[in-house]
Amino acid sequence: MRSGLALGETRAMFQHIARQMIASQDLLSAADRAIGDGDHGVGMARGFEAVLEALEDSSNAVKMLDLKELFQKVGMALVTSMGGASGIIFGTWFTGGGKALAGKTVFDGEAFYNFLESGLKAVQDRGKAKAGEKTMVDALIPACSAAAEFHNQDLPEVIQKAALAAAAGMENTKQMVATVGKAKTLGQRSLGFADPGAISTHLILEAMFEYVASLP
């Protein structure tokens, strides 16, 4: 079982995440139509197409000095291509999370936890979202808590625990009334539906685990 990924392998992990998120466009759009304007899937697909383009040149892996640079490249690709609140929030997750990875070239359990912790803080500082408001942080907070508990384990185990926690957090958003974002206009009618941002958060972590678990 892998204890960590080298810089080039981490880049390949993001390429896998991007392909999985692009493939999830219809699922995410359907989820967003239930409580929003239905464009979340299109935006996420567009953002991760930009991520693939940003990481396409294999020489980038050599040019990047550390994980911070890689994560911030991913985040900036999302911000500049998606537009709107989702682009800013998901881009901030990676750019903010990447700040904790300066000087690191191995993506291990501790680095993963540091990424989640720093990314969560950056997202909450930017969007002011709190737990229980039916947003992506309702998946990200439990994921971060799980990573804090298991960060000394091998990387696949840490990410799996975080992804499972994010899935539970995503499911819990079905029982929440949206109080921020476009869905807040629905009030009680937002009950019974998962937050699309929380779904995306879970899918990203799930794809991350899939890639890491597939390595010899």
Offer a quick outline of the entry.
69% of the residues lie in helices and 2% in strands. By secondary structure, the chain is an all-alpha fold.
- Overall mean confidence score, pLDDT: 94
Helix content: 55-70%
Count the domains: 1
Q: Let me know the largest β-sheet.
A: 2 strands, antiparallel
- Strand order, sheet with most strands: 1-2
Gyration radius over CA: 16 Å
Total beta strands = 2
CATH superfamily: DhaL domain
Number of helices: 10
Secondary-structure content class: mainly alpha
What is the name of the CATH class?
A: Mainly Alpha
**What is the CATH T-level topology?**
Serine Threonine Protein Phosphatase 5, Tetratricopeptide repeat
The 3D shape can be described as globular
Going by CATH, the architecture would be Alpha Horseshoe
The percent range for strand residues is under 5%
Uncertain segments: none
Q: Please, could you describe this protein's structure?
A:
- This protein has 216 residues and is mainly α.
- The chain has one domain: DhaL domain (Serine Threonine Protein Phosphatase 5, Tetratricopeptide repeat).
- Helices cover 69% and strands 2% of the residues.
- The chain is built from ten helices and two strands, in the order βααααααβαααα.
- Strands 1-2 form a two-stranded antiparallel sheet.
- Helix 1 packs across helix 10 and helix 5 runs antiparallel to helix 6.
- The termini are close together.
- The model has no long low-confidence stretch (mean pLDDT 94).
